[in-house]
């Protein structure tokens, strides 16, 4: 992991990232030369039609998958070619995931689900410290009253809030959010979006994939993907304008 | 009916799509059910099937016990005069026959084969309903003391030695100087009761009058001979106890009168016990059968849990297909029948394979284990086997169908269609998976543990040092006619000539006119002078070369010298075990027995292959007329059977070659049971471990697959590979541990239930064997935990999350 000379405010920097899926007969370019920079406190949405590469981009952003080409930095650390375990370590300390289908573990209680990233952390925390931190995060999503419940005893919206608490628990550099309202009714969806907005207002950096234009508009920076390439980067345009 | 055929066709087409699944089921179930059917048939024949003789339950044989003054049984064989007294005076049996088992060299054939020969009285054929394929059996013309030299051949002998010659009744067979006219051949289907030893098949039947007991021994009230046998059909309605009492008094009263003048037999007595044929033939094989059954049932259980797992995975895989069936109106019952027709078809095919394998098993048992197990000749696919086979098809088809269908939540089936595989499909419950792991580990641990014990024990017996050397040695037995008076000297001269000839061969290093060290020791009656104390050690006739040849060490005193043998001196050598009995704190040297017999040496005791202890033994000076020799060859040298036959012919026309075998081969034969046990237990252990590895891998692989999404999530939030390996091991450890505990309980039950049989196996070494077993099974379990997981954790996390999200 080498340090790059980037702005210390930059959380994510991607240069010329591409992803090609190869089969015996076919080569699919899921992402083409993506350049992307996300700064601290940003709220970025990535939207686009089905199959445009949103999920692939998010997987690479979250170190769940490797790019075929290009360079990728998280908080100035080059994470392009990490081993599986190194990637896991970075995911644990710097990335918080929120999935469309919540991905909570049914056998574990709400508390244990939220505490899970801390248990995988390289820096071992005391039980007391874990408890304090988990309760803090549950308070942030207004779920402190459901600590001992199992996920399947909760509503979809509640489950997603637990998932948000889990994503926050290790103080990540960025929250990666994948269609957070996809499995929720509109009321619960709105609640979840409110939580995310509030978190962003308090300084959390968020990058969200969604196909819902209403929610995409809630982000300050909106990227549109089509056939694996970014169509507009208004933020960059704005910055250029500002510079001129 | 058409519905049934339609379902079978559908089942066939569905299975054809999955050849590897079908192959796994057929191989696993075919092999294990084959073994099950083979052993079940054997158990049925040995335990339930009546013997193939008329009124078989009334057929009895008699055990003759020579009981010493301390009420210990000294010998279990008949003395000739007692047998004759019983035969002539008993009233308990309506029909009776006498048998003497022996072997003879067929001198009328060029290759001079040695044939097993049984001397019988005519009733033998009637009692056992031995029908002739050609000619007649023995009749009044062959009654006792008629001395009519005729012979009846077994079908096998007619085929092997006479190529089924249709003119066989015009032929004769000659055994050492006596020509017997062949009067009949027994039917091929006749099964001889193996009363003397398992696997012993008579090749030629000769009239009782010609049996090998010498004139002298026919009058000896104290010399017993294990080859003498009495059989009879019960003619009175009395209990066994009453019969034993009446026969004991018949024989013992007369015997006491006959031996009243002999000091040695003071306070000795005769006890008679009758045994029905079935118990004699079965012998101690019942335990072996139960052990075999337990082993094979264990294998079937492992196979079942493996296959159950395969069926469960297949049902999970078929959920979409089943959902479509349900959506177009298939009832729950219909779905069960759909699955049943598949399991039924697979089990039918498995059982067909199993029947073929069972037949192969029968062949192996008949050809390699006929001396270890009784009645194997009767093994064939019979009504019982077929019924068991059908039973297996029905039972296993229903069991697997039930198990598979139990997984289907009919009401939730439509969800499978709606969700299109979004993770709401059929899953095997955690409890079922756990139970499968526990069962698998429990059975496998118990089986592997038992097999390692058996393997180690037989290897120990095979490798235990015997205390003597038999390298490069062969044993030669010469065929001679029973010596009549005045013939001893000429036979001794012939044997001396042969010995000289053998010694002059460049291949031979030494010759000893002795019985093989591997041959059974005879029982000798010794009474110590002065004290009148009686002993019955094992006895063997040897010459002065014997101990040096086999390198059996002398502890004190001397070996025999040539003069002892030449003059037939009354001296003997004892082994250290017997010496200790004779003189616990001093020396046995110089002790006198039976008048003038003196102990001149003490040798270190030797252990015979397959025996667990060293017994008290005495060695006597042989006579030059003794028809046995040991040959020691120079390194790398040997003499063929043909060469030996030529030398015998050159030496004397009186002698024939009766037996010639390398001592190492004889040793291997004596250790056959141990070798068989070692090979069988090792193969069973390996097969069990193999099946366990497949089974555990199957279950754990399935459960890991089921958790793929969860594992993906854990990876996404930063779990490292080691964390997940530890997690899977930790999650499965309780089931594996419960499996171990269950196996301990099973083993404990076995050890407590069969403690008297297993007492020899219970020692401190069990702990190390247990440790090895636990290590092996533990290792396999760990492997089964890790291996399926590796495909998930060794790829980027997104692959684990894909498909589920």
Describe this structure in words.
The complex is a heterodimer of chains A (244) and B (805). Chain A has 244 residues and is of the alpha/beta class. Chain A has helices at 54-61, 84-94, 110-119, 127-140, 156-168, 186-201, 213-216, 234-243; strands at residues 10-22, 27-39, 43-47, 69-74, 77-78, 95-98, 174-178, 206-209, 221-226, 229-230. In chain A, helix 3 crosses helix 4. In chain B, the strands form five sheets. In chain B, strands 1, 2, 4, 5, 6, 7, 8, 9, 10, 12 and 13 form an eleven-stranded mixed beta sheet that branches. In chain B, strands 16, 19, 20, 21, 22, 23 and 24 form a seven-stranded mixed beta sheet that branches. Chain B is elongated and about 100 Å long. In chain B, a hairpin with a 5-residue loop joins strand 1 (59-67) and strand 2 (73-75). With 805 residues, chain B is an alpha+beta fold. The longest helix of chain B has 37 residues, at 332-368. The model of chain B is unreliable at 418-425 (pLDDT under 50). Chain B contains 25 helices and 26 strands. The chains are: A alpha/beta (244), B alpha+beta (805). Chain A binds chain B through residues 59, 62-66, 84-85, 87-89, 91-93, 95, 97, 99-101, 103-105, 116-117, 120-121, 166-167, 170, and chain B through 709-710, 712-723, 793-798, 801, 804-805. Chain A: InterPro entries: AAA+_ATPase, ABC_transporter-like_ATP-bd, ABC_transporter-like_CS, MacB-like_ATP-bd, P-loop_NTPase. Chain A: GO terms for molecular function: ATP binding; ATP hydrolysis activity; transmembrane transporter activity. Chain A: Keywords: ATP-binding, Nucleotide-binding, Transport. Chain A: This is Putative ABC transport system ATP-binding protein.
